[in-house]
Amino acid sequence: MATKVSDTPRPLPTASSRASAEKAAQPAGAASKARTPDPRWSKDRFEPSNTRPLPGLPAPLPQLPAPLPQLPAPTTPVEPKCEPKPKPETSAKDSDPMTHLAYLASDELKGRDTPSEGLDAASKYVQAHVQKYGLVGPNKDNAANPFEQRFDVFSFAGKPGVAAKGEAHEHGAHKQFGHQLFEEGFYLKEGMPRDTLAMLNRKYESTMKAEGQPLSPARGGGLRSVEELRSLATESGKGVNTMALLPGTGPHKDEVIVVMAHMDHVGTDRRGNIHNGADDNASGSAVLMAAVPELAEAQKRGELDRSILFIWTGGEEKGLVGSQYFVDNPIPGLGTDQIAGVVNVDMVGRWDDQRLSVVDTNRKGQPNYFRDVVDQANAKLADPFDRINRDINQYRDRQDGAVFGRKGEDVLFMFEGLSNPNGGGDLIPEYHEPGDDIDLILRDNGGEKPRRVKDLMVNVIGMAANRKTEE
């Protein structure tokens, strides 16, 4: 771990230097105009004449014998066929998080609420990107689109911050980072795990009690069934987890490192303000996308022992719904038994680019294997982060990785940090506000923070994928 302590952000590239670099990268200009032929020249100067020689010149030479048989007209040489060279799969544009962040945080997606057309559009954008680099859709339970895992989203009527059926939805206002499980919504599915069903029964009871509403008793005693809870809840539509698999090439290729970021945000408020969520969490989603080209190249070189499963979750802003659905409904061959580590990236765009905060402990506060991996991965950077703060353990259970942590998985949570560069402090002032836009990321660090987080994350994933363990 580096020991620099300067809090002064690194100087950003100037507009002129960026413009010069862009100009240098431009292809050559349009082809030159064709030159106008000189009218003084004509074909007659090069063709034989049938007229008599001019006076004073010698008589013409005797006629030569008949010409040799004419050779066949030359044919256009046929060049040997060769397959066109594939375009380089790792492009600077696709490997820059700011490329993807600009789209994901645009007004066009209207805040990426769960569910919404904006979130669906973001999912399609991610799917096109991962397919470009050869990743595969792993969800064998969805033959129509194995890159998606869809789930129904519900809420209990009367929940604070949730509108009655038929009214526009608005997220409950809060300033504490993240969400408790099923805080503002949940999923329902026949055959769901009994412990999740029991949790939803308790959620229903506490919600009705808080609202002073009478309870509907379970028909057969004990737990209310999925059918009963469905009748007591309001359905808002289908959420989506977007996923892609980069298969490993080594002896542990059946194990996976899960790399995730929630792609949803809170949508549009009642006043019509779009909450673009550039930092929360277009930044983390874009970092994952930007890592795909480099990791795909590493896989082609045989440098990934374990497989990498990318997940862009939906429903996080409702209460970690998408991640819980994934754990409760594992896709074939990718259950928790196959998971060898989880990296969750959430809000990594703001403040200066010299520090980062992480959670690398289990639920008992004990360091997991990511503690050493993060420090070693940072040391491998050409320009390491000055500080890796471990000051956000209070958020460990309020982010998507917590769902996996409860199953005993080793989880690393990567976060931009708080207001104090040396650790601690407050969240960004724009958290869950319409002002969370890309221009503030550019103001804070010129987009270098997401880029540097991507570089660190790629190192972490590579080390986790190739980590030696006792058999």
From TrEMBL:
Domain Peptidase M28: 241-441
Family matches, as Pfam families: Peptidase_M28
InterPro entries: M28_fam, Peptidase_M28
Basic and acidic residues composition bias: residue spans: 35-47, 80-97
Stretch list, region Disordered: 1-98
GO molecular function, one term: metalloexopeptidase activity
Gene3D superfamilies: Zn peptidases (3.40.630.10)
Low complexity: bias regions: 22-34
Gene Ontology biological process: proteolysis
Sequence ranges of Pro residues compositional bias: 55-77
Protein name: M28 family peptidase
Natural source organism: Myxococcus stipitatus (strain DSM 14675 / JCM 12634 / Mx s8)
